[in-house]
Amino acid sequence: MHYSVPEWLSPLFLIAICIPFIMIVLWVRKVTFTQHRHFTYKAVAIFYIVYLLYISLASFSGWFDKVSFPPAVLLYTTFPYAFLLFGVISNLKIYQNILEKTNLEDLVKLHIFRLIGVFFVLLAFYDALPKAFAYVAGFGDIITAISSIFVVKAIQTKKSYAKKLTYFWNIFGTIDILFTAIAANVLTKISIETGSMGVDTLAVFPFCIIPAFAPPTILFLHWSIFKKLQKKST
């Protein structure tokens, strides 16, 4: 079942969701620019453009329409994208080089884009998502995003507690995104079995970009931060 939302919400979301893609491309550009590897950030930009087009085409072609478990949007987008990040990209020398050259605070800064979690709250407000799920997921993202500012400040000013704070923040952010992903699947299963409200809205364009992009990307960034912290310990 698809739930209606105000007409202004979808275009506003489309504008906002561009921010994380741009931030990631600019981050890669910053790290690789001094190494004269201009093609790297261009390749990332091209991949994301193609990926967004693929998500859009899949959505408008009705691939995500049927409510199933696991959700079709995960099968066609999230899982393959997660495999690409963790199974392929993480093993590439260019990724390892980027991670080595990246400052820890720059990785943490990227999480400011999780302010987009406000759209979970808005969708719940307009009865397009289960309120308990959306409020926990949305405010969890918002808290992670806002607190990243203080974590970055602690790292930059070399506070004695900066490393521990980063660990705690990173764990919280990881738990938040894992909760969102798992809870969405649980609600989908319950919805199929009982007919209760699920997260069908997240399978509808443009909001299907959230499950297709956010969980793998955010988990990959948190994992990269853990790797960076581990290297700083040795």
TrEMBL record:
The UniProt record lists the keyword Membrane: yes
Transmembrane regions: 12-28, 40-61, 73-95, 107-126, 132-155, 167-192, 204-226
Top-level division of the source organism's lineage: Bacteria
GO MF annotations in UniProt: transferase activity
Keywords: Membrane, Transferase, Transmembrane, Transmembrane helix
Protein name (database record): Glucan phosphoethanolaminetransferase (Alkaline phosphatase superfamily)
Organism of this sequence: Arcicella rosea
